[in-house]
Model the fold of this input.
Amino acid sequence: MDRSSASPRSPRPPRSPRPRPSPRGPGPGGPRGRWTRYRFRSVWDLDAPAARVYAALEHPEAYPLWWPQIRPVAPGADGGAGGALIRSALPFTLRVSAAELLRDPARGVLEVALRGDLEGWARWTVRSRAGGARALYEQEVEVRRPLMRWLSLPGRPVFRLNHALMMRAGRRGLAAHLAAGPEAV
Done:
């Protein structure tokens, strides 16, 4: 049909409703989605045998003894998810639970799934190196805490710096803990 024969009042196709924003913020494809996801990698060179480093890292309930930003950890029942409170330089505390995904002493790997204010995974890989051990920490998470999601774009550099400061304090704390002797582990 050509335009001249069309009725001036021809009905328009129905408009689809606009999607409502999620209460948890935009999804992965939304404008903030990529800004709420983080990938971290830290390397800790420690002057202790790899087996001692692994032994210290496989007991997260003891992290508060040497890592100032980790508050008391509640172990999970029957090997289930345990909870932790984490507070670094920023004025808020993150609540997370961690469920073990992998514990492989032969390969030096510990991996957990994270839920709560951060969702994703974290992994330690411990290897021998000349004079001690190297602990590689890798983490991929999405921020789920509403305030942090809202501040995701302007706050991203501050959040990354906060994480770096926390990891530096953790490395120092673990090094001092390991230097205190085998009974400290």
About this structure: The two ends are 83 Å apart (CA to CA). Residues 1-31 have pLDDT under 50 and may be disordered. DSSP finds four helices and six strands in the chain.
